[in-house]
Amino acid sequence: MSASCDSIFLSDCSDEPEAALAFPRKSQRAKARAHDSDSDSIDSLGGRVPRIREWAPKRKLLRAGKFDSALICAARGEGKSMLIRYWYETVVAAAPPAKGFAMTFVLSRSEPTLRQYAVFVPPLWTAAEREKPLDERGPPINFIDFAAKGETFLRKLAASQAARGSAAPRVLVILDDVLTKELRYNDAVTQLFTQGRHSHIAVWLISQAFTNAIDTSVRKNSDLMVFLRCRSGLESESIKKEVIRGCLAPEDVGATELPSGKVPTTESRFCAGVLSECTSNYKALVVDHRVKTTRAHKMMAHFKVPSGFVEVVED
Question: Where does the chain hold its CATH 3.40.50.300 domain(s)?
Fold first, then answer.
């Protein structure tokens, strides 16, 4: 880890069928009547209603030539470690060179967390360490104790990448368990979100809290925001007010289906329904700010790691 930074380096357009203009079939009318009282906005001619759908990480997580940032928030034991591992192994590690990353750096204040990432993130060693047998090598230089040298490393990384310009390699930085009250307004972390894309740096920030742990500039510069189930009422209200309401267009309320098929007719019911249905049973609510629209069914989706993927000891 003592090596300097320089020494380390060597649109959502689904094809929807057009709504039928003829009279609806009996099955369509029956389906519309089956909705609860919140579903009275179903098109009387049987037309399709926009729906909060399942998110496809293999198609949407990475984009060629882009260096997107992601903010992932979840309480302990809600499945964020499995989500991160699934995305990394099935999307990041399997990506073609044009979309993939040359290196991944993991920064954490917790040694057990670093060991957990070592299971699926390829470790890097200095040239001297690589000459030693595997069991005699020191810690990989891409697994960094944030409390000891994290801020210094991030500044050196940003400077090194900027100096290389367009020739800089694509780098993914994962920050897990790094934020405390003292580091809420950390300049090095904020710079990754506001300027990292100009230096070919993508960043994933994993946090157990959203309301009082994440700086406003980090929230506003996050391309993706991912929320698993919240255990705090304060956290839930903050997410509904600051995130979900920001995805709503006036025409969405009363005209957008939740995953269950319900169509809430008020803004408060819609926000509560989205957060509840999209984060239950280890599912995640994914908010994509890269979409060039403010329609809820385009910006928001739900995702769940397929059953039987792997079992990870949750942090």
Answer: 55-228
Q: Tell whether the model's pLDDT for residue 185 goes beyond 50.
A: yes
Helix (H), strand (E) counts: the chain:
12, 8
pLDDT at 37: 36
Average pLDDT over residues 206-228: 85
3-state DSSP assignment of residue 287: strand
Q: In sequence order, what DSSP letters do the residues of 157-219 get, joined into one string?
A: HHHHHHHHGGGPPPEEEEEES---GGGTT-HHHHHHHHHGGGGTEEEEEEES-STTTS-HHHH
Q: List, edge to edge, every strand of the sheet that includes 300-303.
A: 143-145, 103-108, 171-176, 201-207, 70-73, 224-227, 284-288, 300-303
Architecture of domain 55-228: 3-Layer(aba) Sandwich (3.40)
The predicted pLDDT at position 220 comes to 84
| Average pLDDT, integer, range 222-241 | 88
The one-character DSSP state at 71 is E
The closest of 197, 163, 191, 157 to 65, measured between CA atoms, is 197
For residues 143-171, average pLDDT: 90
- Residues 303, 57: contact at Cβ < 8 Å? yes
State which H helix or E strand residue 274 sits in: helix 267-279
**Percentage above 90 pLDDT, the chain:** 38
